[in-house]
Fold this protein.
Amino acid sequence: EEMLPTQNQKLLDELNAGSKAALETLFRTYYPRLLALARSYVYDADAAQDIVQEMFIYLWSRRGTISQCNIAALLMTGVRNRCINYINHQASLRKHLERQDGNATQRLTNIDMCSDTASVVETRDILNQLDSFLNTIPPRQKEAFTLVRMDGMKLRDDQRVIDAYLGVADDAED
């Protein structure tokens, strides 16, 4: 439900004066619509709720400085921008985790033995689990995994490696 310009200005004036009741009215009026907007950008329900709540916290923190504006447009734009920031942050985290994952095996194989016995034991356990896994897969896949994950070869470097990694039969190569 859209507010009339006079209601909008009255609530802004009250909010600027520090009225919690004005903030509550804005929250009750706009929260469902803002949450739907956030959910259309961010598919994580909890993240969408957080984004909308952060917008209202921001609005409250700016009380006393908000000039005459369309409060609905201010809130919608703020939520949209926060959603875009969230999406960008998630993408950045994913890239970082992918890089970390790609380097994890290399770090395990090049482990620098330290004085921390627990770390050494944990590392040995992980390497034993990796060896156990490698012993359960076909020899060509094991070779491909070793070349790609242990030796740092890129999958695109050798079609034979790609075929082995994906389990393509020898007959398909002829």
